[in-house]
Amino acid sequence: MTSTPPHLARLAEHLHLITAIQRGIEKEGLRTDQNGNLAMTPHPRALGSTLTNPYITTDYSEALLELITRPHHSVTDVLAELSDIHRYTAQRLDGEIIWNQSMPAHLPPEADIPIAWYGTSNSGMLRHVYRRGLAERYGKAMQCIAGVHYNFSMPDDLWQVLETPGDTTQDRRSKGYLGLIRNFIRYAWLIMYLFGASPAVSRSFLPENGHGLQLLDDDTLYLPHATSLRMSDLGYSNKAQSDLQLCYNDIETFVERMHRAVTTPWPAYEAIGTHRDGQWIQLNTNVLQIENEYYSSIRPKRTTQRGERPATALATRGVEYVEIRCLDIDPYSPAGLSGQTARFIDTFLLFCTVDPSPFFSQNGFCQDSQHNFGLVCREGRQPGLMLARQGQSVSLQDWGIELLERMQPYAQLLDQTEGSQSHAHALQVQIDKLRDVELTPSASLLRDLRESGLSLHDFTLAKSQAHHQHWLNQALPPSLERQMDEAAKHSLTEQQRLEASDAESFDEYVAQFHAALALPPAA
């Protein structure tokens, strides 16, 4: 074991900063019928408005639920709220269930997949048209891929304790989060090995040829050593995004490149245009319609004000938190994310925050990290797999164990604030996975498919039905149920208010939305 890093030693003297860490969860999941077919029904009115309910909305498809927690100071509390939202939702689905797997259930023909609807207000139509654009650019089936997003924030005083450079709190905060992001990108391949849970996909999801997958059974395609087909090049990607290389060395360059992406036309999208038969089909013809279209494993985030663009918010007020976007849904956990996984993610992110994080060369882009990430998604369980590290080859197993051993003092620090051993235990479970590949969730899923003789679809359907029953068997406390009922009713009233208050046409609203994108400061 190496000696304790000096910044970790300083942090150990300020344990109150560890307890001030916050995390929140956004968990996606398709609504399906009892046979595992995509639900064609509208979003249940009992769940409120998808535009204004702070707990329950939809992502890209009308059937793709997104359950959202508030930020919490402990893993226990954030998972308790996620479980409560699951219970509330399950009890109002009227015969439908939530598909607990990242890769989709059986889908209808592409044209019939419903795009999320948010009402007739200008803000609701902006969300809907953006998703129409996603359908044009990536296809509707890709809108049905689901995942878990993990939001993570540090108290401002932590950056001073870590001696993060900067003249202001905002400057230190942004530099600190970008350092976290660079380390996360360096080591994100480890997350895919440890938690990737989508090594297979239903045969109907992909075209018959050109995907390179093997046949596991009549209804299931897979790669024998894959960890996450969702996060591989089979998932949500295209040529325009693959050419986009954002820089995480400083916030100014990051914002400048994001600004360029949302203002630079892309020939294939220009050929589509913004209207068809008099209807909006995408917000613009640029590389990205809006900032959130950029698909990445992690994002720097800043809460936006009404009508404010994300890039403008980052440019003016800096980074507020990070959003981890590469976690597959855990098909064995009713909530799609276990406490053990969340505690390891906290350990991993604290390590990424404190450990030295040199700038990326290559114009702020790390080619090795992109290569390692994609390789592990498709071949992560291949015996003897070698990764690229600073121009040298290193085995995934050796590098992974080395990183996990370096994380041990961070797990101990988190445990010290809780008076537990839960983070150390979660870390040990991951070390065991590196020593025995059969313990990984991707290996477990493929083994269960073979032993059960079930297709991925039938296996996931059985799991999802069991998880649904798990939530139905747990009644919500009456006070909490009333609170969520009130939030759903209020959201419907708020949507109606927004629809009645629009003073400009949608064309004018879109023009104002684009005009709100401020020029970035000079890098």
UniProtKB/TrEMBL annotation:
Residues 13-372 form the Glutamate--cysteine ligase domain. Keywords: ATP-binding, Glutathione biosynthesis, Ligase, Nucleotide-binding. Signal peptide: none annotated. InterPro entries: Gln_synth/guanido_kin_cat_dom, Glu_cys_ligase, Glut_cys_ligase. It comes from the Bacteria. Its EC number is 6.3.2.2. Coiled coil: none annotated. GO terms for molecular function: glutamate-cysteine ligase activity. The keyword Ligase applies. It catalyses: L-cysteine + L-glutamate + ATP = gamma-L-glutamyl-L-cysteine + ADP + phosphate + H(+). Belongs to the glutamate--cysteine ligase type 1 family. Type 1 subfamily. This is Glutamate--cysteine ligase. The lineage of its organism: Bacteria, Pseudomonadati, Pseudomonadota, Betaproteobacteria, Burkholderiales.
